[in-house]
Amino acid sequence: xxxxxxxxxxxxxxxxxxxxxxxxxxxxxxxxxxxxxxxxxxxxxxxxxxxxxxxxxxxxxxxxxxxxxxxxxxxxxxxxxxxxxxxxxxxxxxxxxxxxxxxxxxxxxxxxxxxxxxxxxxxxxxxxxxxxxxxxxxxxxxxxxxxxxxxxxxxxxxxxxxxxxxxxxxxxxxxxxxxxxxxxxxxxxxxxxxxxxxxxxxxxxxxxxxxxxxxxxxxxxxxxxxxxxxxxxxxxxxxxxxxxxxxxxxxxxxxxxxxxxxxxxxxxxxxxxxxxxxxxxxxxxxxxxxxxxxxxxxxxxxxxxxxxxxxxxxxxxxxxxxxxxxxxxxxxxxxxxxxxxxxxxxxxxxxxxxxxxxxxxxxx
Length: 364
Known about the structure:
The protein is mainly alpha-helical. The protein is built from 13 helices and two strands; from the N terminus they run ββααααααααααααα. A two-stranded antiparallel sheet has the order 1-2. Helix 1 packs across helix 9 and helix 4 packs across helix 7.
């Protein structure tokens, strides 16, 4: 089952998630994208809405593996802190960088929250709690956070007005993002990686830890267990979604359960195929997973540069490549846009393959 002490399916799952992140983030044009590759406008979810929670989930699984034989010590805490700060720093850099001198946006325009920032915060808090508590305590913390978050955003009024779960000023999650971050949000009225919604995202990683503990245990029929857990989470989350809508922007408690349910089901399938049956599958994703954060950061950074350098008055490098290579009369604009994204994905898989075979593993 283990190759050099690693579970193949976890590496494949991590790499697959990064590949999907790049795919949905780099279409040829946002004006023509197939619906499954777009986020839900507010309530509900699409396949794209599963991608980020899948990564936070596998962060938790990796924590269970990495620290299974370690105890909290000054040295371990130092390493965790440094890694978390690196992730946050890289995220802030992506939000602040611009190609024109002095190469950073005006302070008022810099986005503070972000994907890498949330990964860093979640990694730090979840790692510390994993080292200093036991499984039962983590379960109690998870339940408390999900229920507490539900009660908080549903029943606490905003400026004397009853709170709403819609995209509105009296939505507590949105209100706090605007109040705390002001102009430093992704959108004027909220941020999908904002302050309050980070609380339930911790549970996404906790649930990944529980799955990781199952995978490294001597438990029999792990695949069946993961399928059962995943299915149960999907059912509970969907029922809870009737009262507390499934929503990625708010990272609602129902969203946590539904996405973790899908994560368990997908991981169970990959685990069964690769680790149980020994079928060679997903090597390309393993290469990407070996340098996951590096590949993701580079894809975001290069995409930003290509979107900023203008070839003509109207077209950036990104736009020029899309219009002149991928758009033609034989296929739809949606297909052209997807083909561009797949080409970008293939470029980064190739880069990951080269790094892997040269044994270059950049730890962030």
